[in-house]
Amino acid sequence: MVTMIVAALVEARRLNIAREHGLLDQPKTTVPMSVWWLVPQYVISGVSDVFTIVGLQELFYDQMPEEMRSIGAAAYLSVLGVGSFLSSAVISIVQVISTRCGDAWLGDNLNRAHLDYYYWVLAGLNALGLCVYVGIEVAERFAFYGMSENLITYLTNVLHQSTATAAKNVNIWTGVSTLLPLLGGFVVDTYLGQFKTILFGSLVYVVGISMLVISVSVIPLRYRYVTFFFNLYIVAVGEGGHKPCVQTFGTNQFDKDNSEDEKAKSSLFNWCYFGICGGAAAAIFIVIYIQDNVGYWAVAFGIPVVAMVLALVLFLLGRRLYRRQVPSGNPLTRVAQVFAAACRKRCLTVSLYGHGECCEEGRVGDGKGVPRGRTLTHSNLFTFLDKETFIDDLDASSTSINNWRLCSVKQLEEGKLLIRLIPVWLSCLMYAIVFAQIDTFFTKQGNTVVTTIGSHFRIPPALLQVFIGIVIVIFVPIYNRILVPVARNITGLPSGITTLQRIGIGIFFSTVTMIVAALVEARRLSVAREHGLLDQPKTIVPMSGLWLLPQYIVIGVSDVFTIVGLQELFYDQMPEEMRSMGAAVYLSVIGVGSLLSSAVISIVQLISTSCGDEWLGDNLNRAHLDYYYWVLAGLNTLALCVYVGVAKCFVYKKIEDVSST
């Protein structure tokens, strides 16, 4: 795919030079352009062969029956053979369509033809194949980020909201869309299961985006405000059903008793986030470019519809192959029973508490007495809750088990797991507030600086966010293949470092992000002051947009540590029956952080305005966004200190095998 993109760009340059030298109608005259321009496409194609051709050989040899190994080699070659025939068919189709449109792309005169367009078509088809290979998560993230990353621009430029109001609306919507997965996770674990919830959530998702397209294209502007936000929150509902299930559904496809599957599962969160960021980067690059340069918001919102439909189709293609877990009942009821039983037995005497019989799993509930093969080890934390597992005289005399008064040890430990995770959840909220700045003030910063390449091509400010995805796409393999093995040799841990250490490193980098952003903003204000632009907010400040790249790069590195770490922590440390809820709880950190970001904006606006110096005004040249970033950096530093204390006290859950009785 990259080969085709490079070839298209080189061919576009060749045509441009031919045009400049008046050679369009002289196909036999050599264009004054060095042949070395063609080398990159050959080099990249060679690199591609090393991976794909060799990989195909190995796959078709290794996975064929032993008696058919020779046929396996032939099957690999048949890929190239059939591909050659299909290439001829594609050439014929392109020729017919382009000739009918009066502009033959593959004519004999290459100076008049458009071989570059043909290469772009191949790149697009290859990208489509890549999306099919990577799967539903990439397409879904493409749809989500295609809408969200430039949302603040739509609110300020089309709906004419103030910068602060638009930022708060973006944060609130992001918060709601990442809090609704809590409800979705509950529905998954209690009623529908993961497969059905993904299916229904995806359908609502598609309906919401489709209605969003209608609202920005057909609905008159005076009525658009209500319909736009209504449809935006329908998308959030679809996100709530889709998001808590996808990754946990993926992990359920691994066999927990297979060591090879366990090793593969340990890298799942890294590569899943790799796919998420790949889809996000593609969305930012394609959709946002259309929004800012073409101006058709309906088309820009329509592309995510196609992506989401593709995601749904991909998901349904594998429906016969999936491992599906049935809903295990309301997990919140079991948790509520833990605390209710603890309250009822709070006055249990020490002597009885010390000599009572402990209630094991299987004696509570249905009375079948069939314990699971894997159970939680009893911990010495929160011992005040332990009383609820001991059978007192009232429990012994009762003819039936009262689940709200007597809990099993396993049920008790599940409640303790949730209590342990609460301080971690709280200490990560400040990170989420920093994370919320990407979609709001980072984008508004980019609107005020020079983001053009050459004299004509302008990079939309929101497109700078693609560098976050690029950093993650580059850094995840480095982390997974280089840093983890090195750390593993030092620590002896399979993951190299603990999940909590990983999250803490990411929080540190998020603080660095705010410091860098504050310094860059201070420089931007200085340049605006030097050129007398303080009262000209719509005039571009003569400062390169490249100055903004460091803050995007550092936050990208931060994401690899903290976001992936939170996913892994809340999946691994939740009770097994609440795994989907665990994914939703991780998202709720981002959601509550986004809502708190809106609150912080309001507080900063109120205080700074009362002091006569509005930090977050519509005129960013008179505002003090740098002061705001310094405040966030300070708060995040304090949050990091709190997090370190919480992490030191955290105890990971322990699993033990017990034999069936």
TrEMBL record:
<feature type="transmembrane region" description="Helical">
    <location>
        <begin position="583"/>
        <end position="607"/>
    </location>
</feature>
<feature type="transmembrane region" description="Helical">
    <location>
        <begin position="458"/>
        <end position="479"/>
    </location>
</feature>
<dbReference type="Pfam" id="PF00854">
    <property type="entry name" value="PTR2"/>
</dbReference>
<feature type="transmembrane region" description="Helical">
    <location>
        <begin position="198"/>
        <end position="221"/>
    </location>
</feature>
<keyword id="KW-0472">Membrane</keyword>
<feature type="transmembrane region" description="Helical">
    <location>
        <begin position="38"/>
        <end position="61"/>
    </location>
</feature>
<feature type="transmembrane region" description="Helical">
    <location>
        <begin position="417"/>
        <end position="438"/>
    </location>
</feature>
<feature type="transmembrane region" description="Helical">
    <location>
        <begin position="73"/>
        <end position="97"/>
    </location>
</feature>
<comment type="similarity">
    <text>Belongs to the major facilitator superfamily. Proton-dependent oligopeptide transporter (POT/PTR) (TC 2.A.17) family.</text>
</comment>
<dbReference type="InterPro" id="IPR000109">
    <property type="entry name" value="POT_fam"/>
</dbReference>
<feature type="transmembrane region" description="Helical">
    <location>
        <begin position="268"/>
        <end position="290"/>
    </location>
</feature>
<dbReference type="GO" id="GO:0022857">
    <property type="term" value="F:transmembrane transporter activity"/>
</dbReference>
<feature type="transmembrane region" description="Helical">
    <location>
        <begin position="296"/>
        <end position="317"/>
    </location>
</feature>
<feature type="transmembrane region" description="Helical">
    <location>
        <begin position="627"/>
        <end position="646"/>
    </location>
</feature>
<feature type="transmembrane region" description="Helical">
    <location>
        <begin position="552"/>
        <end position="571"/>
    </location>
</feature>
<dbReference type="InterPro" id="IPR036259">
    <property type="entry name" value="MFS_trans_sf"/>
</dbReference>
<feature type="transmembrane region" description="Helical">
    <location>
        <begin position="117"/>
        <end position="136"/>
    </location>
</feature>
<protein>
    <submittedName>
        <fullName>Uncharacterized protein</fullName>
    </submittedName>
</protein>
<keyword id="KW-0812">Transmembrane</keyword>
<feature type="transmembrane region" description="Helical">
    <location>
        <begin position="170"/>
        <end position="192"/>
    </location>
</feature>
<dbReference type="GO" id="GO:0016020">
    <property type="term" value="C:membrane"/>
</dbReference>
<feature type="transmembrane region" description="Helical">
    <location>
        <begin position="500"/>
        <end position="520"/>
    </location>
</feature>
<keyword id="KW-1133">Transmembrane helix</keyword>
